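in:
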């Protein structure tokens, strides 16, 4: 797309005044005629929240070439937008690199509740462990549990009909993790349990990514899936995306 056409499109986005949904224009604004959209399927907003694994180098403006980042939310959105142009789907990415569960709390109203998502995915926890290992304003497992529980309680109170997917934080024995593997495992394992427990408490779908990545080691070594022990390679993001779509379909019938 040429620069002039891009500018015209951005001008159009600004003019239609989309309000507080994150300075974004829904893809279906530019899609097929309205009579091709399924009449019995309501519009849905799907929000991805978390740290750098979700962030994926996303942009923070209206540039649709980069706005979903280049991680698993991008892969999920690309596939489902392509496969379901007859549904009014809006995918949003609000992951921020380096964030902990406490960081999510600080921006939850603006970056989650105000967006009123129908489906919310959360992947958080590995930075909480990183802070402990590097003694950078660390929090305990109990604090992690309390913070995560408070986050989900706030979410269900504000949005009682929301559908939740909780991704398990994960590591593989390579890079920075392998340099101090036992400590990483000792700190992450109880936080993985917390993620599973809060998912059960709030009737969320739990996606056991640690077991999924462990199983993937039968196909290829750790460095094929995750380059530094924490951040996925492209194949690792594709693995998460496939599991996410499978879980959303099985548990929520999404997309319809």
């Amino acid at each position: 797309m040429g620069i002039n056409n891009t500018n015209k499109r951005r001008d159009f986005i600004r003019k239609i005044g989309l309000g507080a949904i994150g300075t974004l224009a829904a893809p279906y604004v530019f899609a097929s005629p309205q009579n091709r959209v399924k009449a019995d399927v309501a519009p849905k907003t799907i929000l991805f929240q978390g740290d750098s694994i979700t962030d994926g180098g996303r942009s923070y403006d209206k540039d649709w070439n980069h706005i979903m980042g280049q991680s698993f939310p991008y892969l999920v959105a690309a596939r489902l937008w392509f496969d379901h142009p007859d549904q009014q789907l809006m995918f949003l990415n609000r992951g921020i690199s380096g964030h902990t569960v406490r960081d999510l709390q600080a921006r939850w109203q603006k970056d989650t509740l105000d967006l009123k998502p129908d489906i919310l995915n959360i992947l958080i926890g590995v930075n909480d462990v990183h802070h402990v290992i590097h003694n950078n304003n660390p929090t305990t497992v109990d604090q992690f549990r309390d913070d995560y529980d408070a986050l989900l309680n706030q979410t269900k109170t504000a949005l009682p009909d929301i559908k939740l997917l909780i991704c398990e934080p994960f590591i593989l024995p390579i890079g920075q993790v392998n340099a101090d593997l036992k400590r990483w495992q000792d700190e992450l394992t109880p936080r993985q349990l917390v993620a599973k427990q809060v998912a059960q408490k709030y009737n969320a779908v739990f996606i056991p990514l640690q077991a999924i990545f462990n199983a993937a080691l039968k196909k290829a070594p750790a460095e094929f899936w995750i380059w530094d022990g924490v951040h996925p390679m492209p194949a690792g993001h594709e693995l998460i995306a496939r599991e996410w779509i499978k879980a959303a379909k099985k548990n929520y019938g999404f997309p319809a």
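note: Residues 113 and 155 are 7 Å apart (CA to CA).
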